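Batch job 17 of 40 flagged for manual review because the log was empty.
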Amino acid sequence: MVLTDYEKTQIGTAIADEIKNNLLYVAFGTGNTAPTPGDTALVAEVVRIAKAETTETADTVTVSGYLDTTAGNGNTIAEIGTFKESTAGTVRTRHVLETPIAKTSSKEYWVDISIKRTITEEV
């Protein structure tokens, strides 16, 4: 079987649309346990913000969030996740930072979560 270029484009578009429509919020937490495919939440969420933007290239969709000087202060940010919902809901992606961030009102951060869409063929 061979996937035609047209079908690969259609699948890639569907994946990109799924990401753009379901990764609407970026959350920050203090948990530092390794992420697993079975994760349903951040370990210890402290703040959730609406995504700032979504950008797309030929093979990657990037969701960006902006943690301003007023959010998350007094916490050591160690994990980042994405959600569809503004509160509660199931985490869609989760990442633990190699170097946690001591968040204060003098610090602001942009975070980019990039998801590469790759289509492979197997028979």
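Reviewer: the log was empty due to a logging misconfiguration, but the result itself is present. The radius of gyration is 16 Å. Unflagging and moving on to job 18.
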